[in-house]
Design a protein that fits this description.
16% strand, 394 residues, alpha/beta, 14 helices, 43% helix, disordered N terminus
């Protein structure tokens, strides 16, 4: 009955909408479990339409089932249940996005392709996807930087949200110098990313107990900067005290430190706004994830199944920008209301200085830790694409 209602509701709405393969999106059957925590979110899904079961999307001729007009009929997809392991719970931003993907796919294929989601279970997620225990997930690659070393060097990316997503897609899918190496590393681990499926991360912030006007006054007034990693912030001129994120929170309250750096994803859950009064974005985003699949499972799908999954991925990426933007705006508004001060906007020159310090610290550390000669080539491309002033010194 639930599936019938989903299809009837979806049929009343219309949305115009390419892989591991490439073409160009229901309500799913969900298995719920409990597990790990990630970023909090208080905003709801954007009110978007879902496709009817008869939605047809143009793709290249000969790739899957086509109508007489040359459009794909996704309702011809073979029935399948997709086993999805999620690091998020249903209320988190990543969880809402996962459900968006599942619902869209279900409606697009007329109920033929369902997503069975195991929620909040990041324990062994990479191993599960690599081994085929799970078929799909949102893979936050930076959590597996030791294994996915080519991408893992970028702990954050500069620019706005969509600029950051575009950069990650360039590296994985478009830049010849990097795409073949990254794709090969993924394949060696039995994983593939759906085409152009880079997802947003969360903005990064500095927060302090003193007022500042620019980067110079931010660094110049600080007596003790709390961070888990000293190098990037030492390059900016901070006197770094190495502390865990939890200890940084306590340190701000006790006066052990006067400044720190964090992601907006942790602000609400850890109540950072109770410990720091003055805030600014640093011009970067934490590295987002990709919509990922087990490679053998993906290769075993039919072309129309792959096309439907890619269409759902494309739709989910579009929705992710709206969802993460709303979450970010809500979080900033909540901080400003609590502390009574607006976020300071730094100059582009300051943002460039910050990114340059980050990149140089991460790139130099990566080269010291790795004997892989290909890593330097990837870093050079990253430096060029992001405007970082960096040359190989090892």
């Amino acid at each position: 009955m639930r599936r019938t209602l989903s299809l009837l509701m979806a049929a009343a709405m219309l949305l115009t909408l390419a892989s591991c393969g490439k073409q160009s999106a229901g309500e799913s059957t969900v298995t719920e479990t409990t597990g790990a925590e990630t970023e909090p979110v208080e905003s709801s899904l954007p009110a978007e339409e879902t496709p009817s079961a008869e939605t047809e999307v143009s793709v290249e001729s000969g790739t899957s089932e086509e109508t007489a007009s040359g459009e794909v009929d996704y309702t011809a997809a073979e029935a399948i249940t997709i086993h999805w392991l999620s690091a998020y719970d249903e209320s988190e931003t990543g969880g809402l996005l996962t459900q968006t993907f599942a619902d869209y796919l279900y409606a697009l294929t007329g109920g033929a392709m369902e997503v069975e989601i195991t929620w909040a279970s990041d324990a062994g997620l990479f191993t599960a996807l690599s081994s085929g225990t799970a078929d799909m997930t949102i893979l936050d690659y930076d959590a597996y930087a030791d294994t996915l070393s080519y991408l893992g060097v970028l702990q954050a990316v500069p620019g706005g949200m969509e600029d950051a997503m575009a950069l990650l897609n360039q590296l994985v899918f478009e830049q010849d110098e990097t795409a073949s190496l990254i794709q090969s590393e993924l394949s060696d681990n039995g994983i593939c990313f759906l085409e152009q499926s880079a997802l947003p991360g969360f903005a990064n912030v500095f927060c302090t107990n003193y007022e500042f006007m620019d980067l110079i006054s931010l660094t110049g007034q600080s007596q003790s900067f709390g961070a888990t990693e000293a190098a990037p912030f030492s390059l900016l001129g901070f006197q770094v005290t190495e502390l865990s994120p939890g200890d940084c929170y306590d340190g701000l309250q006790t006066g052990l430190i006067d400044t720190t750096h964090t992601s907006l994803s942790t602000v609400v859950s850890m109540h950072w706004y109770d410990a720091a009064m003055f805030w600014t974005l640093d011009g970067t985003y934490t590295a987002g994830g990709y919509l990922a699949a087990n490679q053998d499972w993906w290769n075993g799908l039919s072309q129309i199944q792959q096309a439907a999954l890619q269409a759902a991925s494309d739709y989910a990426v579009e929705q992710a920008v709206e969802l993460y933007t709303q979450s970010e705006n809500d979080t900033i508004a909540a901080i400003e209301e609590t502390v009574g001060f607006a976020f300071l906007t730094l100059s582009q020159e300051d943002y460039d200085t910050i990114w340059n310090a980050y990149f140089n610290a991460w790139a130099d550390a990566a080269l010291v830790a790795s004997s892989d000669g290909n890593l330097g080539a990837i870093l050079e491309v990253c430096a060029e694409l992001t405007g970082a002033d960096w040359i190989i010194t090892n």
